[in-house]
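Thread: Newbie trying to understand structure tokens

Hi all, I'm a second-year student working on a class project, and my supervisor (Dr. K.) asked me to get a predicted structure for one chain before our next meeting. I've only ever worked with sequences, so writing a 3D structure as a token string is new to me. If someone could post the tokens and maybe explain what I'm looking at, I'd be very grateful. Here's the chain:
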Amino acid sequence: MRRSRVFFLCLLTLAGIALSQPANWPDPSQLTFDLLSFNPPEPARTVLSNGVVVYLAEDHSLPLINGVAYVNARAIFDPADKVGLAGLTASLLREGGAGDLSPDALDRVLEQLAATVETDSNDFFSSVSFSALADNVDQVLGIWRDVLINPQFDAGRLEVERQRQLESIRRIVDNPVQLAVREFYFRLAEGHPSGFYATADTVDAITRDDVISFHQRFYQPTATIVAITGDFDSNTMIDKLEATLGSWQGQPVDYPQIPAFNPNPAPKIYYAPKDIAQSIILVGHPSVTAYSDAYNDLDVANEILGAGGFSSRLFTEIRTKRGFAYSTGSFITQGFDYPGDFVEFSISRAERTGEVIELLLSEVNRLQQGGVTQAELEQSRQTILNQSLFRFTSVAAVTQRTARVELLGLQPGYYENYLSNVQSITPDRVQAAAQQFLRPDDFIIMVVGNQDLFDRPLSDFGEVVTIDLQ
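---
Reply by user tm_fold:
Sure, no problem. This is what the structure looks like when written as tokens:
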């Protein structure tokens, strides 16, 4: 019942209905809090005989064990003519059978054991994870190992996964938001693999031999970091992992040469015609890497500008005061080997497209010229810190994050230090970060919509390039 009540209150809030509160309640914007002091568990690090790095943390609260292998097998390693290969390989690790188990047999055994094995892939790593009852962990570890090391890559399942990817690609053109994001990042990356996206041609070009070769090339013990948490004795678990993974003998990984990322792509306006009543607008450019000193300052600036929901400047100006947009805000993405991005967005009334673009640009200028107030800083800082605590909600979350920190080449304790760094930020630092790292004159602007409905031509903002969606 309590969950239902909270959910109902959230719905009311999202609907913009004002809820009354007792007169003696304090003003939340005036509340002050002591600096956070947080001491997350420290996973133990060990290295197996074949070079696999392992992080372990015991958690005896439930008779469960969870594990994940992070592998430096990134989607940005896809050949340009076979984009989608890393994702297809990761899917088939689990869906294509493994060891002596056919795809259907693998499904049945995991169901009987009340266990799961799952796979994923992104620009930074691929992963193979498992969850099992402590009593069944020996059997599940064997299956997990085979999925990771000895996949069958069943030809029939390959075609099933291919058709899933092709259907997903076909549907993007019918989704204006996904379409805008895809086309925006393709232009933002300007030839870098991080902006490549799968097409029907690239997915159709992938063969079973390509999948096997990708797996053999990148899924190697020295490219793998494992995180295990749950109801076990650490010394016993190390012995189990040595018996499970220790015989996995690999070879040095021949990583592809990734072209340099251009942090200053040419500022242009890209227009994708779509007969819709709204305009999907994205503006932005590459920003900074996540491990740079400026990232925390820019994170707070972004929270005040557009990531802070109803209280953010963009939401207040564009939606609340003017009613021009259904949704608006901003975000920054984390970059490691190459910069992340700063992006403002709006799903707006088509007849206000030009005005909204102008407001997106002017709010950045206002942030740079006028800075932020201490009250805005305190509110955004508390929001960021409160959200950050959800990164440490369990022993598993902390252990897995620690493993990813090493895989990504970050300094140990990166996320823990993030909390103290945010607490030291001042209004002057926020303004300085906005002045140094936000460049409205260099923004790439992406608009999906019907230009016949726009209030002004997009050419008012610069050179327009029309995108052929065929």
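A couple of things are worth pointing out once you decode it. Confidence is low (pLDDT under 50) at residues 1-20. The CA atoms of residues 219 and 323 lie 51 Å apart. Feel free to ask follow-ups in this thread.
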